[in-house]
Amino acid sequence: MASLELTEQPAMTMQEERLARNFAEFEHYVLRAQGYLAQGELATAAAHCAIASHIATQNHCGIFWSPRLEKVLTDIGRAVPTPWPARKRPTEFNRILEVCTQVSAVGGHTKMLCQWVKADAERQHSLVLTQHRGPTPDFVHETFEASGGRRVEMLNHRPGGQIEWAKRLREIAKDFDLVILHTHCEDLVPVIAFAETDKHPPVLVLNHADHLFWFGPSICHLSINLRDAAQDLAIGRRGIAPERNILMPTLAEGIVRTRSREEAKRELGIDPNMTVMMSAARRPKYRTMHGTTFADIHADVLEKHPNAMLLVVGAGEPEDWAPVKARFGDRLRSLPEQPQPKIFFEAADIYVDSFPFVSSTSLMEAAGYGTPLVTIFTYPEATRIFGINHVALVGNVMQARSFDEYRGMLSQLIDDPALRERLGTSAKEAVAREHNLPGWMRWLEGVYARALELSALDNRPMLEAVERPSFGEPDIRHEDIFGGNWPTVRVVMSYMGMLPPHQHWAHWQEVRAQGAFSSNGEAASYLLPEWLKRWVKDGILKLPEG
């Protein structure tokens, strides 16, 4: 009898251990969702799908989608049938329903949506918001009213929870030729609404969160990818068939300069002879990595070039930037997010990308002003999803593979105004050709044409799979860059208000037992159903004073 030879398994690295812990936490809520489904607790099963997806989005689990969660949601969707009208294969798309989780006054996501609707003026667009919080920007309402669509509808202002909102989304979608999802990663309402893929209008998914876990591959008639790395990931890690993927550049607003660089500098109190390195992004994109801040990366450049300064819009006042700021004083300025950052872009001589989280939208905006672009990519090629590989930016961004190379590029640009002018002009022309109107419209028409060619999606084979975590690239370093580190109990709190009353009470008690409420007032607020909380916070319902 042959003896069995035991081979010792290599010890897991710190990153692999973290992935395994995250997946175990994710798995716990997947199993709870499946269990509630088996008990007929559909709303509770849906909420636990949302909790699981939120964990996977914030704390990477080695996966980019979950067939098991989408199978639960599909079963829920099929269990709450809605009569669909008999549908013929569309021959053109005239009435389009845009679906967002929420919209905001700041950020590229909402801006691109409105620019898209305005550009596609031959078609009628309407908007549904599944879980919007706070006021909706006036420019959003104006955009959709001008398109001739129905008024903006907020589903979470209706009594009920995610299943009721999904049913309402179905009812609305009956009147449209096409549905396009611009939803957040953890938004499961469309998956329930469009579970029966052969009965509703085609559903296109804008893959704007291409680096994160998200809901939707199982209902995705066509995935619209904003860069080729996203397309590769959608095929290889999300199970979306190659023919159901298409590339379409980000739509960027055409830039009209209103000030010269010198004028903009003077208005900002900057010496016109100073060479301004400028960056603009939300604060999380400037995360400190292994003790090195964004300010630290630029310290040697500022030391070498007394005629240069760094201006960062969106990072606020990070405490760990203080030592570098103390060294260079006003030559390192860090500001909070600005609703109108135009003057800062106009003042820039060199645009430096955020790090470690790139900001493609800001790069395109900077290119519109004829500013040379520099980014850092220090990772293996298998992590291309972490870098810049957008249509017009490829070949028109100086991409450094090390910090030394990056600082060398900046020094070269500071010392050579002619080089800055040449590279800035090249980037401006490329972005205008591919990402601005009218050139961008040929990409959009290509998307519509592909969607018309495709047959209805049969998602049954996809939903038979079981996701397993990957411990390779890009997974092992994903959380370092993008991780949100949300405590799970806070995630549970976010969804309690969407549960039916008996489950809401049970989960509220569970959270209270963990000591997660900061005060009695907070505890009381979490007893409200989500729709009622929105009525109060958004001013629909006024509570009596005193």
Spans of at least 5 consecutive residues whose pLDDT stays below 50 are 1-7
The CATH level-2 architecture of the largest domain is identified as 3-Layer(aba) Sandwich
Anisotropy-based shape = globular
Structural class: alpha/beta
CATH class of the largest domain: Alpha Beta
Cα end-to-end separation? 84 Å
> Strand sequence of the main sheet, in spatial order?
3-2-1-4-5-6-7
CATH fold node name of the largest domain: Rossmann fold
Please tell me the overall pLDDT: 93
The CATH superfamily name of the largest domain is Glycogen Phosphorylase B
Which range best describes the helical content: under 10%, 10-25%, 25-40%, 40-55%, 55-70% or over 70%? Answer: 40-55%
Largest sheet properties: 7 strands, parallel
Query: Number of domains in the coordinates?
Result: 3
Number of E strands: 13
Strand residue percentage: 5-15%
Instruction: Specify the number of helices.
Output: 21
Radius of gyration: 25 Å
